[in-house]
């Protein structure tokens, strides 16, 4: 399984919040934003800070998706 942050990007677009503003507002490093953009794993504490800032649940910003094997 892998993580997808597609819901986060959709939510940011709906709320008209650029990635750069999100990064500045909650103190994310550029490398963390890069990991999110690439769909890589980040610390749970980072996801919780994003949820707190956006006033949403963790399921509103990410989901686990099965990788196709074969």
Describe this structure in words.
With 70 residues, the chain is mostly helical. Helix content is 53%, strand content 9%. The protein has one domain: 434 Repressor (Amino-terminal Domain) (Orthogonal Bundle). It has helices at residues 6-14, 19-26, 30-38, 44-54, and strands at residues 2-4, 63-65. It has a two-stranded antiparallel ribbon with strand order 1-2. The chain is globular, with a radius of gyration of 12 Å. It starts with a strand and ends in a 5-residue tail after the last strand.
**What proportion strand?**
5-15%
- CATH names the topology as 434 Repressor (Amino-terminal Domain)
Report the count of strand segments: 2
Query: Kindly state the mean pLDDT as a whole number?
Result: 95
Fraction of residues in helices? 40-55%
Number of helices: 4
| Major β-sheet strand ordering | 1-2
Helix and strand composition category: mainly alpha
- Compressed to H and E, one letter per element, the order equals EHHHHE
Computed over alpha carbons, the radius of gyration is 12 Å
The CATH architecture classification is: Orthogonal Bundle
- From the N-terminal CA to the C-terminal CA, the straight-line distance is 14 Å
What's the number of domains? 1
Largest sheet, in brief, is: 2 strands, antiparallel
What descriptors fit this protein?
single chain, mainly alpha, 70 residues, two-stranded antiparallel ribbon, 434 Repressor (Amino-terminal Domain), 4 helices, 2 strands
